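Dear colleagues,

As part of the handover before I leave the project, I'm documenting each prediction I ran so the next person doesn't have to rerun anything. This entry is a single chain, and its sequence is reproduced below.
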Amino acid sequence: MAVGTGRSLQRMMVCAMLIGWSALLFADEPAVVDNSATSQQLKSIKRKPGSKAIVTIYEFRSAVPEIQVKAAQEMFVTALIKSGAFAVAERQRLNEGIMREKQLNASGMTTGDSGASKLAGANYVFEVVVSEANPGESSKQGNINVGGMEVSHGNAKDSIGMDVRIVDASSGLVIDAVNVVKEIESGSTNVSGVGKLLSLFSWKGKTLPVNVDGDMKSTRKDSVDRALRSCIEAAVAELAKRIGED
């Protein structure tokens, strides 16, 4: 009975290890609302009473190939709106949206008088450029071997930088500028030789009834888009502070 019990426990150990391994490999995470530190920073901006500064952005430029300029510009507009500090004037898709609506109204096909109304003029124009990227800024790697099982780990850091110029729409003068930098971290972990370590253990003098081995490798890298959004939100928070103080 004792031998049978020992073998049962051994099988349970093997099954538990296999189940745990599978859970690590196939784990999934649901989508969540962005609750990053910079997003919280935007939410914490105090909404001042009265009219808001009207702002717009015509062009978002990037010297980093991985960044999609159109998507980055949408991120910037989203951050401006989330801050609650600005009234954002649409300038990118006038013909696809606002002008069509105005034409419909002017022709008498819709109610109201939007066709005769003028568009709001911007007080400030933001000029944004992702101006720097520093791949492989730093890296570290190490490993440890215990009874034939080897665990290795490494990490590396890159960085991107963004510059935002504030242009007075009345004078065309650049009145201020903001620059932010964000690190992009990546890491990897590898575990191998689990069977070699297990072979050193026994249950009441008996080895495991089957040969068990395993190998797992995981990698993690902060996405460029997430780092970009962090830069944008930090820049917008600073813009809200500076323009609000004018």
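Helices lie at 2-26, 37-43, 69-83, 94-106, 194-198, 224-245. The radius of gyration is 28 Å.

All the best with the project,
I.
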